[in-house]
Task: inverse folding
């Protein structure tokens, strides 16, 4: 089955930039979506279709998909960005919605 | 705005059937263009998609769970439901209901989740 691989953790100082990668076979051919999940809360959609943001999501969060990896970039990191982040795709070959392994972002 | 709320027993015995309901408020479940989904998260782990249902009743399940999953919809109550049969401890998880946008394969609105423990 299709696997999406993310780094387990990313640490970043406030005001700096955090980059969270999501790797999968031929990921460039898929639409990648990103979710933020804070402890004890449900996931929140932050980026969809590689780089679009739902209303209410700050421009500091942006997405890209280069074909080899998809990346969620958090600019000017704030303490409130500390959370787990998951990428997600639809894998047509398996008929699966697949989530990445998740990345814990720690703000130093 | 649309909100989702899961409900159901927090404790289920092994080999019994887990039953959960998701109530949709702030909008009609019969509005076209959305698929109503279930997703779970094992304790301390990642997310696993279970399946979705359209308001018409058509369903699509995760192939790995398909043999044990049944979803249904009650448009009169603005609710949809999940049944997972023959549960084991491996089914212990937080269960979320979520709305999937038909135009994009993504889940834009989630319920708060409900913890279900499988134990005798």
Result:
């Amino acid at each position: 089955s299709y696997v999406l691989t993310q780094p387990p953790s990313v640490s970043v100082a406030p005001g700096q930039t955090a980059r969270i990668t999501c790797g999968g076979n031929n990921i460039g051919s898929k639409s990648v979506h990103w979710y933020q999940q804070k402890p004890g809360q449900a996931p929140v959609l932050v980026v969809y279709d590689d780089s679009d943001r739902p209303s209410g999501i700050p421009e500091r969060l942006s997405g890209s998909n280069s074909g080899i990896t998809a990346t969620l970039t958090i600019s000017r990191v704030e303490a409130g960005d500390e959370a787990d982040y998951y990428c997600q795709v639809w894998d047509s070959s398996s008929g699966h919605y697949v989530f990445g392994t998740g990345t814990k972002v720690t703000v130093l | 705005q649309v909100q989702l709320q899961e409900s159901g027993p927090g404790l289920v015995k092994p080999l019994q059937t887990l039953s959960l309901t998701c109530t949709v408020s702030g909008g009609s479940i019969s509005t076209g263009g959305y698929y109503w989904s279930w997703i779970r998260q094992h304790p301390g782990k990642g997310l696993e998609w279970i399946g979705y249902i359209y308001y018409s009743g058509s369903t699509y399940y995760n192939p790995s769970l398909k043999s044990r999953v049944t979803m249904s919809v009650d448009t009169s109550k603005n609710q949809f439901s999940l049944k997972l049969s023959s549960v084991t401890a491996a089914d212990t998880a937080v269960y979320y209901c979520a709305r999937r946008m038909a135009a994009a394969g993504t889940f834009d609105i989630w319920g708060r989740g409900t913890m279900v423990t499988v134990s005798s």
Summary: The mean pLDDT of chain A is 95.
